[in-house]
Design brief:
47% helix, 22 strands, 15% strand, elongated, alpha+beta, 12 helices, four-stranded antiparallel sheet
């Protein structure tokens, strides 16, 4: 049965419960501005009554209550809402990062008209046009050289600006990798502490808040998901791979990629496999560097290389007023010093690859002539090789168009002498070098005896860059691949800058001399402006610049619109979370007043019981 002192115990429990509630409310107030903190509430339950339903209980009505007890201190948190926030955060940071860097890229293309690459190229064409009208003018020749030099410098400046953004992004990638490694280690350490606290039967609310905050920050850096099915082994996944498992955290490393300007590739520290990231800051940075910036630089390199190649093709066949011929107007740095393009790719001291950019056939072809031949050409493609068939009824022009319309990384055209030219493009796969023809093979006779590119048919006579002296498979002329990023090295030939009379406006006569008033070479160079050339696809240089500016502008607009949309979504989600988990100072103060009244009432209750016991013990029967 209940004794006289049971009421004291009831009062004590009430005092302790209200004291815990007051302390918890104070804890909430003190952490009102703590990032990631979730307000806490004390869960109260009635203490077990004295009389239980068994045969030994005293025969009296009702159960005697024993007051209250603190069951737990829990966080007010909506787990489903938290999962939505984690899932959406990576998209917010992804578009924010893209918008930030596309603002910088747009600034590169938003040059003042008088100093832009496009306006300088226009002035360069105009100088050649004027030289075609006044082919004997030394002053006009000087204008051609000066404007060519200005154009080369503006191309170099654009490359420098784009590569500078690439360098900045690469530094951000390395810093983000370190940040991810730090956060995953902290999550793993917290997992170990949380498991220990739960094993003691307590709720590690503050530790859980810290872990949830770290997970949210991690989700902003990469597209992660969490698995909480096992209380003892909280897990974080990245693109289907385990990133954190309980107290164990995996980490990332970075290693340079030679064919990507030495930029860092993110790999798993344990397996050395490449890390696949599709969202968050890291995903945006990798995409910006390896797709957007790399694509813009590759396009600029392609334009610079093709532009210089086409001008040089005419100029070296022309002749200057000083009767000098055979000079390239623009110079490009070769990738290797070997005339055969031999290169030691694996760094073992032995040449093992051939880096060649262009093949030129020996035979002059008629574009409208039917082949009368059957076969299949095998050319290097984006992934491996591609097949391009040709038939007896095809014309030369149709076969050339079929090569260019294919998904290969080798393009074709007929030069001014109607010789077939095969030229390498940039490589989509970073493991492959740019402007290097990797494979050319023909099962028939088109590229062999007909066009004069290869020495023989079949796989045994194919050209493949994965061996030294692969140029021995070629019948016609070839050129070594240019240095990586030729847009950064394009320049006017110093011999021409030293003597502007070397500018070739004419073609040699029968005696190999320059004729007065001959401006045919100048006319042909000026006409390149409106000629469709193979810059990824057939288009003029003006069309390239227009499409480049449009492409950058549209992608920048897309990034800005998606960023604003995602910000609005995240603001709604965070506001909803704050309404559930955030600390409201006024609400906490009201709760403290309520708990204070309860505490005072419990104290009064204890005081009354004390007086009753005093009466019973000290006064009754005395």
């Amino acid at each position: 049965m209940a004794n006289s002192f049971a009421a004291i115990e009831i009062g004590k429990r009430s005092l302790m419960a209200h004291s815990t509630q007051i302390n918890t409310a104070g804890h909430n107030i003190s952490n009102a501005d703590t990032e990631g903190y979730s307000r806490q509430r004390v869960q109260i339950k009635t203490f077990d009554p004295i009389y239980r339903p068994d045969l030994s209980r005293e025969e009296r009505a009702g159960q005697l209550g024993q007051g209250t007890s603190v069951e737990s201190v829990t966080r007010l948190r909506d787990e489903l809402l938290e999962q939505r926030i984690v899932a959406q955060t990576n998209q917010e940071t992804y578009w924010t990062t893209r918008e930030k860097y596309y603002t910088m890229i747009e600034q590169v293309y938003n040059e003042p008209d008088e100093i832009s690459v496009r306006s300088n190229m226009d002035k360069y064409w105009q100088a050649w046009q004027e030289l075609s009208v006044y082919p004997d003018s030394q002053a006009v020749r000087q204008a051609v050289v000066t404007r060519g030099d200005t154009l080369a410098e503006s191309i170099q400046q654009r490359y420098t600006a784009l590569s500078g953004i690439g360098d900045l992004i690469n530094g951000d990638i390395e810093a983000t990798v370190k940040q991810i490694n730090t956060i995953t280690k902290q999550i793993a350490d917290l997992n170990g502490e949380i498991v220990k606290v739960k094993a003691m039967g307590d709720n590690p609310n503050d530790l859980l808040d810290r872990r949830d905050l770290l997970v949210e920050k991690l989700s902003g850096l990469a597209n992660v998901t969490t698995d909480i099915r096992d209380d003892d082994e909280f897990m974080v996944h990245l693109e289907g791979n385990i990133l954190v498992q309980g107290h164990i955290a995996r980490s990332f490393d970075v290693e340079p990629v030679i064919n990507n300007n030495g930029y860092s590739k993110v790999i798993w520290s344990d397996t050395k496999n490449a890390v696949q990231v599709s969202g968050g800051t890291l995903g945006a940075l990798i995409e910006l560097r390896d797709v957007d910036i790399r694509g813009e630089v590759q396009n600029l390199n392609t334009v610079a290389l093709n532009f210089a190649d086409l001008v040089n093709d005419v100029h070296k066949n022309g002749i200057g007023m000083n009767n000098v011929t055979g000079l390239d107007f623009f110079i490009q740095e070769p990738f290797v010093t070997s005339v055969n393009g031999n290169y030691d790719r694996d760094g073992d001291g032995m040449d093992d690859h051939s880096y060649l950019f262009r093949f030129t056939g020996t035979n002059s072809l008629n574009p409208q002539e039917k082949l009368g031949l059957e076969g299949t050409m095998t050319l290097s493609g984006k992934n491996g090789t591609i097949s391009v068939p040709y038939h007896a009824t095809d014309t030369i022009a149709e076969v050339v168009a079929r090569i260019n319309d294919s998904d290969g990384e080798v393009k074709a055209y007929l030069d001014r002498d109607n010789h077939l030219v095969l030229k390498a493009t940039t490589a989509e796969d970073m493991e492959n070098p740019d402007f290097v023809i990797r494979h050319v093979e023909d099962s028939g006779m088109f590229l062999t005896g007909y066009a004069g590119v290869l020495n023989g048919s079949g796989a045994e006579n194919a050209y493949d860059f994965a061996r030294a002296d692969a140029a021995n498979s070629l019948r016609g002329q070839y050129s070594v691949s240019p240095v990586l990023n030729p847009a950064g090295y394009i320049a006017v030939n110093n011999e021409i800058k030293g003597d502007v009379l070397s500018v070739a406006a004419a073609y040699p006569n029968n005696q190999g001399k320059s004729m007065i008033g001959d401006g045919r070479a100048a006319v042909e160079i000026a006409s390149i402006r409106n000629t469709s050339v193979m810059i990824g696809k057939n288009r003029t240089f003006d069309e390239y610049f227009a499409s480049s500016v449009t492409n950058v502008g549209l992608k920048g607009e897309q990034a800005e619109m998606n960023m604003l949309s995602q910000n609005a979504i995240m603001d709604d989600l965070r506001n909803l979370r704050d309404s559930i988990s955030g600390v409201n100072i006024d609400e906490e103060l009201a709760e403290i007043i309520k708990f204070q009244h309860g505490y005072n009432a419990a104290a009064k209750f204890v005081s009354v019981i004390d007086e009753m016991l005093d009466t019973v013990i000290n006064r009754l029967g005395v």
